[in-house]
């Protein structure tokens, strides 16, 4: 086998690839800077040392290196992130998540496990990306309601989908590209289930790693802003005024707890002039009762979304719930020497002056045993307020309160939930049934989410992760340079020459490992197309069937676990899981070796190459 002659451009490309991986893995360097620096170095190298063919035509142009930023795969990912944000902003999946949690409340881990198994099986018969798009918000909602961190489920979700894609001919686009290249070289036609058995073995072993070991290696990197926005474990005091049509009326306390208020602590019930204090035994809620409860911000936000009439403002008025008005919840501290100090909210006229409602109050100094509408405020009290974004942000200039801007979060627009679900379903259906290319479906979905007011432009822009954008552009530029310089082919030929004379199963194992490593630097599709002809050539030289070497390309190219840019689903879960580049390396690299060892032990035996 003739070796490719290495060039200075090839060696420089190898150096940039290694430098990029080191920079990505070094947490102190932002991914955006590493990506932009990688592209800048590639542009400099091929501008100073152009790579030309025999006719003098440049093989790597500036346009070639920068076209990754307009790649359909990248546009698809960005559009899908925006579409998924529409589901979050409308709370569209809260009800299905609550239902699934109710089914598995005694065994929460089994619910998530069942979801991952379903993802792996479905990924065997349809494109992985729509499957992961469907389950990202579901698993995020499940993890949140079960008290688990989203980081523990997002990467396993992506890996389960990738593993499932190994089982059939249409399991992933990588499979189809490799099989297409194989048949073009004169290979036999590959059937739908021709490699289901070895693919299922690899998927099953890899899945055991995903559910048993991967969660132990993952780190929760939820941002400080998110933690502050959720309120953490801080509890606020809220009051509920029970009207005749309220679902709580008529509920009787059981063991001191009211069935409709399981996630809150009832501090006091004011019935006329009488104050009922815990413990509550044989007490039935009545119309007109004012119920004072303590709960975290997230619990009360969810309760407000489900039953807006249930929560009253601390001023003793119903919470303003104008349909179609986008609202924000934030925290504000009563300032020293504030004119609100020593007054009730009704006396301050806070709502009339600011346009914001006070939902709850937090006071650390002592237990409050009075209705919030009659509570005299003190400097240092934390108010949980709700209003339009304009009105809430206007509190920056208010001398009586100090707005905690980092605590501001949007209230889900529940009234638009069905719109969001319909749009999301249409995106998945048209992409999965191949009615439209997935990039067209995703862009149409993102556009409709904004047109129908499921989310606004600001929320859509926040859904686009600049780390994903820059890292994909850099990865595609590296792939372009590797292919143009012949670096990937040179590595393959060098390894095969070094292993010539070894048993066939050793060469097959080494070939698989090389493909698995390079697919995390190049794109998986480029790796499949590049290495399939090499696999056929090696099999012919060794005088063995080409099928095992084709599977080495398919399964190896699908080992896209060690870097986020190696596969679309990794990029999709990067933002929801708050992952860094090093997280994929730490969790995904062992999985590559697990799959490689399984391939080495099973495939040569299965195809009688031992």
Q: Any key phrases for this structure?
A:
single chain, 610 residues, alpha+beta, 54% helix, elongated
Q: What does this molecule look like?
A:
With 610 residues, the protein is of the alpha+beta class. It is built from 26 helices and eight strands. The radius of gyration is 29 Å and the shape is elongated. It starts with 7 loop residues before the first helix and ends with a helix. The model is unreliable at 227-231 (pLDDT under 50).
Short summary:
The protein has helices at residues 8-25, 31-48, 62-66, 72-90, 94-103, 108-123, 128-145, 151-164, 173-184, 196-212, 214-217, 224-230, 297-306, 345-348, 350-354, 389-393, 417-432, 438-451, 457-463, 466-485, 487-499, 504-518, 524-542, 547-557, 568-574, 581-606, and strands spanning 235-241, 265-271, 274-276, 290-296, 327-334, 357-362, 382-388, 401-410. The chain is an alpha+beta fold and 610 residues long.
Distance between the termini: 23 Å
- Count of runs of 4 or more consecutive helical residues: 26
**Which regions have little confidence, pLDDT < 50, spanning 5+ residues?**
227-231
Taken as a percent bin, the fraction of beta residues is 5-15%
Derived structural class: alpha+beta
Numbering strands along the chain, what is their spatial order in the largest sheet?
3-2-4-1-6-7-5-8
Overall pLDDT level: 82
Q: Overall 3D geometry?
A: elongated
How much is the radius of gyration in Å? Answer: 29 Å
Main β-sheet description: 8 strands, antiparallel
């Amino acid at each position: 086998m003739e070796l490719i002659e290495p060039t200075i451009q090839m060696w420089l490309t190898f150096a940039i690839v290694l430098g990029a991986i080191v920079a990505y893995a070094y947490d102190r360097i932002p991914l955006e800077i590493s990506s932009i620096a990688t592209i800048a170095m590639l542009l400099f190298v091929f501008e100073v040392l152009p790579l030309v063919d025999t006719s003098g035509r440049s093989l790597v142009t500036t346009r070639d290196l920068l076209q990754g930023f307009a790649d359909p795969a990248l546009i698809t990912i960005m559009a899908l992130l925006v579409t998924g944000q529409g589901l979050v902003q409308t709370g569209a999946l809260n009800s299905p998540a609550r239902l699934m949690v109710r089914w598995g409340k005694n065994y929460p881990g089994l619910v998530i496990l069942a979801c991952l198994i379903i993802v792996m099986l479905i990924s065997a018969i349809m494109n992985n990306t729509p499957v992961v798009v469907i389950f990202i918000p579901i698993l995020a909602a499940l993890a949140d309601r079960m008290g688990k961190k989203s980081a523990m489920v997002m990467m396993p979700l992506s890996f389960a989908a990738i593993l499932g894609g190994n089982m059939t001919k249409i399991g992933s686009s990588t499979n189809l590209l490799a099989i297409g290249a194989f048949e073009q070289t004169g290979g036999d036609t590959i059937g739908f289930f021709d490699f289901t058995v070895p693919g299922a073995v690899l998927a099953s072993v890899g899945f055991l790693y995903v559910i048993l070991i991967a969660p132990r290696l993952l780190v929760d990197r939820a941002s400080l802003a998110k933690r502050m926005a959720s309120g953490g474990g801080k509890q606020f005091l809220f009051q509920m005024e029970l009207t005749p049509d309220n679902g709580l009326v008529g509920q009787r306390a059981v063991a001191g707890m009211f069935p409709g208020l399981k996630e809150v602590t009832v501090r006091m019930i004011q019935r006329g002039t009488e104050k009922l204090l815990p413990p509550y035994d044989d007490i039935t809620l009545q119309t007109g009762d004012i119920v004072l409860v303590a709960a975290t911000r997230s619990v009360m936000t969810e309760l407000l979304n489900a039953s807006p009439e249930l929560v009253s403002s601390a001023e003793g008025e119903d919470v303003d719930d104008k349909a179609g008005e986008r609202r924000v919840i934030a925290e504000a501290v009563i300032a020293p020497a504030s004119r609100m100090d020593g007054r009730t909210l009704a006396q301050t006229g806070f709502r009339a002056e600011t346009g914001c409602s006070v939902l709850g109050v937090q006071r650390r100094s002592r237990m409050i045993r009075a209705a919030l509408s009659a509570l005299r405020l003190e400097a240092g009290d934390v108010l949980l307020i709700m209003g339009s974004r304009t009105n809430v942000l206007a509190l920056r200039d208010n001398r009586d309160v100090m707005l905690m801007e980092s605590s501001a979060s949007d209230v889900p627009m529940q009234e638009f939930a069905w719109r969001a679900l319909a749009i999301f379903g249409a995106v998945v259906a048209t992409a999965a049934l191949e009615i439209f290319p997935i990039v067209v479906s995703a862009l149409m979905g993102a556009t409709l989410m904004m047109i129908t007011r499921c989310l606004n432009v600001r929320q859509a822009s926040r859904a686009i992760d600049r780390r994903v954008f820059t890292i994909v552009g850099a990865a595609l530029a590296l792939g372009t340079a590797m292919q143009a310089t012949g670096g990937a082919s040179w590595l393959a030929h060098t390894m095969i020459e070094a292993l010539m004379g070894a048993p066939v199963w050793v060469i097959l194992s080494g070939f698989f490992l090389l493909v698995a490593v390079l697919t995390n630097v190049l794109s998986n599709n480029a790796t499949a197309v590049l290495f399939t002809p090499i696999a056929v050539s090696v099999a012919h030289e060794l005088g063995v069937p080409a099928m095992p070497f084709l599977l080495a390309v398919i399964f190896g190219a699908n080992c896209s676990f060690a870097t986020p840019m190696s596969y679309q689903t990794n990029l999709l879960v990067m933002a929801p899981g708050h992952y860094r580049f090093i997280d994929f390396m730490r969790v995904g690299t062992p999985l590559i070796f697990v799959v490689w060892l399984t391939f080495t032990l099973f495939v040569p035996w299965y195809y009688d190459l031992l």
